[in-house]
């Protein structure tokens, strides 16, 4: 697939950087909104801990990819400004300015609120010196038997240069003095805590849920690591490395081997971009680490809470229901599960929409693939796998289908960031069964989510299609809001077949009926739909655009929306995360409103509505309005045809826009204001309303 060049019709907007919000700063603003969920006392305690952890996980990825990218730009020959006019250096400076208060706020919340409240609910993280003698003796035995053998202290000297520390690993720095000499010189040593060791050591002999952190235990017994040495100080620290990997697909003879090799450099071979340590770390040791890691002082973040907060998901996994959201069971998808109903016969009769997590993934999407794997009339199954879960029933069904003689084609996207290793495992597993595994289109990531089942029926071969905004992942289907379509519409089927031929062969299909694909057509079609809204807008027949997605940063699309606003078209945007458009600017965007919803479920669905002069058009898409989705990924946007399904999706959009409990309004300066409700106004949560309507609460 080749990118199709398109000239924007709105060049007059491009030159003014004040018209745009910086992408990186918008990402930080999103994490402030996530942190507010952690601060909200109305959320259950372990859910608050989870939101607190998500902030840290998001920031890990932010540094590994975005900050690393900015640092790389600074070493390039030419400095490229962001389209809001900031240099890489200016962005890095502003990122630090915005993140320090975020980290301080997160730290206060965790240390002063969440952990004390966990103790009130019987979950304790103990300090060694606070334990009785019996507990200390047991921990001593545990350390000697289970931890000490796995540790490797590394001294620093002329013969031992600074160690290659693994990305995001937890490390302990030691300052030592030799008892055998009178020298006042300090010696440095490090211990990298192996990932195989548990972060939380459970004190099983005590009542309740009581733990001690492994780094505290190692520091307590560090004298066993360094006999004959005086331990002056011990401190934990953590480094973050550039984790972006670039695959030279045109040079790789074996793509799996190429990516497998590159993944090793992600762990320890690429440049460090961040150093985290506590305020207790001596300044001379901090300077030593900065120099050894080739960092700058601004790359250091002082954090007085446990490092590696992602590991605290262990506490969230504790089965204490009163501290979590009220559990729910997704609604069984009755058209597929009602006694006597045949999945393929039902799809042949009507299109169906499934809205996860409210509709069950297992009884809809999984059942579709599962039934196909054993149906004697099914000849072929084709599917794109961008991200799937570790223990995937979808992949098992594909393996079973191949074993049953079905022709199975799986496009496994090996370049799905941070899921490369998992996807390599699945690719090899599928290949063993005889499935035809394709590794995507050279130079592009395949982000589209589509599956087809080809079935031999009485009159002809018929193709059944499932196409979605979300991945074939049973875990995220319980946590992310996504929408999928089942259809046997012949035009949809032809497009879907052509789409897979496009991915696996050399075809250049040009006549699409129901699908709009990237990188060839989606960008142009998006601009065309916005332009069409401008052309059909009148005072008597006003234009309206409603768009829900994860991110909006594509400059030409933003310019087109500005133009539509100037013409009087009303634009309602529901953008969960990054948004580079400035709403509410007089003369430019006063007809544009932007809101973000952050709640129990991650809003992942992409829904597009265009009033189109009264001939309403509704689309679902795998793509956000970002340059990468338009030009560097294989994506699909698809039209919703049947009135009943259009009405369902419009109801979802209306729910989201009505939400006044989990919503934030984007201001023209890039800040967000939480949308509340007056005393005489009814509180409304879109997610809660959808749960109550479609799911069974326990």
Brief account:
The chain has 698 residues and is an alpha/beta fold. Strand 8 (272-277), helix 8 and strand 9 form a beta-alpha-beta unit.
**How many helices does DSSP assign?**
20
Mean pLDDT: 90
Major sheet summary line: 10 strands, mixed
Number of strands: 29
Spatial shape: globular
Over all CA atoms, what is the radius of gyration? 27 Å
What report would you give on this structure?
- The strands form five sheets. Strands 15, 19, 20, 21, 22, 24, 25, 26, 27 and 28 form a ten-stranded mixed β-sheet that branches.
- The chain starts with 10 loop residues before the first helix and ends with a strand.
- Helix 14 (420-432) links the parallel strand 13 (407-412) and strand 14 (436-438).
- Helix 2 (23-39) packs antiparallel against helix 3 (45-75), helix 3 packs antiparallel against helix 4 (88-120) and helix 12 (362-374) packs parallel to helix 13.
- It contains 20 helices and 29 strands.
- Helices cover 37% and strands 21% of the residues.
- Residues 1-11 and 249-253 have low confidence and may be disordered.
- The protein has 698 residues and is α/β, with parallel strands linked by helices.
């Amino acid at each position: 697939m080749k990118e199709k060049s398109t000239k924007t019709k709105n060049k007059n907007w491009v030159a003014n950087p004040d018209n745009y919000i910086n992408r990186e700063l918008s990402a930080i603003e999103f994490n402030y909104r996530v942190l507010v969920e952690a601060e909200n006392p109305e959320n259950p305690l372990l859910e608050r801990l989870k939101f607190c952890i998500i902030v840290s996980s998001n920031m890990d990825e932010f540094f590994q990819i975005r900050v690393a990218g900015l640092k790389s730009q600074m070493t390039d020959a030419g400095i490229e400004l962001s389209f809001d006019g900031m240099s890489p250096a200016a962005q890095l400076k502003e990122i630090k300015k915005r993140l320090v208060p975020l980290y301080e706020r997160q730290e206060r919340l965790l240390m002063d609120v969440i952990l004390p409240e966990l103790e009130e609910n019987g979950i304790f993280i103990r300090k060694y010196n606070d334990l009785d003698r019996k507990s200390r003796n047991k921990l001593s035995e545990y350390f000697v038997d289970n931890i000490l053998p796995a540790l490797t202290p590394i001294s620093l000297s002329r013969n031992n240069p600074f160690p290659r520390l693994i990305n995001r690993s937890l490390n302990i720095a030691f300052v030592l003095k030799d008892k055998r000499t009178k020298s006042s010189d300090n010696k440095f040593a490090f211990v990298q805590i192996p990932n195989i060791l548990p972060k939380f050591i459970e004190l099983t002999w005590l009542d309740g849920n009581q733990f001690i952190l492994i780094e505290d235990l190692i520091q307590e017994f560090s004298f066993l690591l360094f006999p004959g040495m005086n331990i002056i100080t011990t401190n934990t620290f953590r480094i973050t490395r550039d984790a972006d990997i670039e695959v030279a697909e045109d040079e790789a003879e074996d793509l799996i081997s190429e990516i497998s090799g590159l993944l090793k450099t992600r762990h320890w071979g690429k440049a460090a971009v961040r150093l985290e340590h506590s305020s207790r770390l001596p300044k001379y040791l901090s300077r030593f680490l900065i120099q050894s890691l080739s960092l700058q002082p601004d790359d250091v973040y002082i954090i007085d809470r446990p490092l590696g907060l992602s590991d605290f998901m262990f506490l969230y996994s504790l089965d204490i229901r009163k501290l979590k959201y009220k559990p729910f069971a997704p609604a069984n998808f009755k058209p597929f599960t009602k006694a006597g109903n045949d999945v393929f016969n039902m799809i042949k009769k009507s299109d169906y929409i499934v809205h996860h997590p409210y509709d069950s993934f297992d009884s809809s999407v999984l059942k579709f693939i599962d039934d196909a794997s054993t149906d004697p009339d099914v000849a072929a199954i084709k599917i794109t796998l961008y991200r799937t879960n570790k223990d995937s029933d979808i992949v098992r069904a594909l393996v079973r289908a191949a074993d049953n003689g079905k022709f199975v084609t799986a496009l496994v996207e090996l370049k799905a960031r941070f899921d490369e290793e998992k996807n390599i495992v699945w690719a090899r597993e599928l290949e063993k069964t005889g499935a035809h595994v394709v590794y995507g289109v050279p130079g592009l990531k395949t982000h589209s989510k589509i599956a087809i089942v080809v079935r031999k029926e009485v009159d002809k071969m018929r193709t059944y299609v499932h196409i979605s905004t979300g991945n074939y992942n049973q875990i995220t289907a319980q946590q992310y809001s996504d929408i999928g379509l089942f259809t046997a519409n012949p035009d949809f089927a032809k497009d879907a077949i052509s789409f897979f031929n496009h991915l696996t062969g050399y075809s250049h299909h040009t006549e699409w009926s129901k699908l709009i694909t990237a990188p060839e057509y989606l960008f142009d079609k998006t601009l065309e739909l916005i332009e069409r809204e401008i052309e059909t807008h009148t005072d008597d027949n006003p234009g309206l655009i409603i768009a829900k997605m994860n991110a909006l940063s594509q400059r030409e699309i933003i310019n087109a929306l500005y133009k539509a606003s100037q013409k009087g078209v009303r634009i309602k945007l529901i953008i969960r995360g990054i948004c580079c458009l400035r709403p509410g600017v007089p003369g430019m965007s006063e007809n544009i409103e932007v809101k973000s919803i952050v709640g129990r479920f991650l809003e992942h669905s992409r829904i597009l509505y265009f009033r189109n002069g009264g001939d309403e058009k509704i689309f679902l898409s795998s793509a956000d309005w970002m340059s990468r989705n338009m030009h560097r990924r294989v994506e699909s946007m698809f039209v919703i045809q049947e009135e009943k399904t259009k009405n369902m999706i419009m109801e979802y959009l209306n729910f989201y826009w009505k939400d006044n409990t989990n919503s934030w309004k984007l201001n023209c300066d890039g800040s967000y204001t939480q949308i509340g409700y007056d005393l005489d106004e009814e509180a409304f949560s879109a997610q809660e309303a959808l749960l109550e309507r479609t799911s069974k609460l326990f």
